[in-house]
């Protein structure tokens, strides 16, 4: 089972497989669910070698409590990965391998993609994501890297990093639980009742898609705000409709623009995000 921890071991594996391109990379923070597994399967089906990284990146957590509570299950993650393909190289680096000069983010100019929604609500988050993704790209040197659409803003931001390093970015659709809730490592921290009630998140996204044809953006926002006001278990952090490529918040619909609805909700203190294409 190729599991590598040090950069030296990683280099050894890479040298042994130097003639075996293409290489696919699936960066994760572990605690793998079906959503991750579908991304890994896509990489395996499209590349000769797949690298999965498991690294809970401290610099992307704006809330120390969230980092402390982030679930970890490396052994069962390894089993799930190698059940897909025993040849997958799983890189589980130490913090000092990723941050040899100290655990801090670099500052990025991200074409304003980081100014709204997650970027606005989680200061420094995307600098942390960009820093670790750039470092993983430098270390692994993949031909293509895979990211889920659930973190759509992240997907657009890593696409910028990929472009600047000549690495192709491939996006994978969100996998949902049977009630529509987007799969997330955080779902495990919800009680069964709240996990069931959290179907409201996808429900309002689908509703916004329906209403987008006939209602203004401000009417849709009022409707959704009212629904969350009546659901005491949920705190709506934001519901926005934004231009899918620039991520600028839309107040009015324009022609020739592709829109997406974005939502962040706290359920019993646990923060969940989701999004849906409206066009
Ligand atoms: O989406 C995630 O799990 C993380 O943000 C990522 C891309 C692995 C970077 O730490």
How would you sum up this structure, described in words?
It is a single chain. By secondary structure, this protein is an alpha/beta fold. It has two domains: 3-172, 3-Layer(aba) Sandwich (Rossmann fold), CATH 3.40.50; 185-277, 2-Layer Sandwich (Pantoate--beta-alanine Ligase, Chain: A,domain 2), CATH 3.30.1300.10. 39% of the residues lie in helices and 19% in strands. It contains eleven helices and nine strands. The chain has helices spanning 7-16, 34-46, 64-68, 74-84, 95-98, 117-121, 125-140, 152-164, 192-197, 199-211, 217-229, and strands at residues 3-4, 23-28, 49-54, 89-91, 144-148, 168-172, 234-243, 259-267, 270-277. A six-stranded parallel sheet has the order 1-4-3-2-5-6, with helices on both faces. A three-stranded antiparallel sheet has the order 7-8-9. Strand 8 (259-267) and strand 9 form a beta hairpin. Helix 7 (125-140) packs across helix 8. It is globular, with a radius of gyration of 19 Å. The termini are far apart. It binds pantoate.
Helix content range of the residues, please?
25-40%
How large is the radius of gyration?
19 Å
- The amount of beta strand, in percent, is 15-25%
Look at the structure and give the mean pLDDT: 96
Number of strands: 9
Low-confidence stretches: none
End-to-end gap: 44 Å
Q: Globular, elongated, flat, extended or rod-shaped: what is the shape?
A: globular
Q: Give the names of the bound compounds.
A: pantoate
């Amino acid at each position: 089972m190729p599991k590598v921890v040090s950069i030296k071991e990683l280099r050894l594996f890479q040298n042994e497989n130097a003639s075996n391109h293409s290489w696919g990379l699936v960066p994760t923070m572990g605690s793998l669910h079906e959503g991750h597994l579908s991304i890994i399967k896509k990489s395996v089906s499209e590349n000769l070698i797949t690298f999965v990284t498991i690294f809970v990146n401290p610099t992307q957590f704006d809330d120390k409590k969230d980092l402390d509570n982030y679930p970890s299950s490396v052994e069962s993650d390894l089993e799930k990965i190698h059940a897909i393909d025993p040849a997958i190289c799983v890189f589980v680096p130490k913090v000092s391998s990723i941050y040899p000069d100290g655990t801090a983010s670099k500052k990025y100019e991200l074409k304003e993609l980081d100014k709204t929604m997650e970027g606005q609500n989680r200061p420094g988050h995307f600098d942390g994501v960009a820093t670790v993704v750039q470092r993983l790209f430098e270390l692994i040197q993949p031909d293509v890297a895979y990211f889920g659409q659930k973190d759509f803003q992240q997907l657009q931001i890593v696409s910028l990093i990929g472009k600047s390093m000549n690495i192709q970015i491939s996006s994978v659709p969100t996998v949902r639980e049977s009630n529509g809730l987007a799969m997330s490592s955080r779902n495990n921290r919800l009680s069964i009742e709240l996990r069931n009630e959290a179907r409201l998140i996808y429900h309002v996204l689908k509703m916004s898609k329906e209403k987008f044809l006939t209602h203004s953006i401000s009417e849709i926002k009022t409707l959704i705000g009212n629904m969350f006001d009546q659901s005491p278990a949920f705190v709506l952090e934001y519901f926005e409709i934004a231009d899918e490529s620039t991520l600028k918040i839309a107040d009015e619909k324009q022609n020739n623009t592709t829109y997406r609805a974005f939502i962040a909700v706290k359920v019993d203190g646990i923060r969940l995000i989701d999004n849906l294409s409206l066009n």
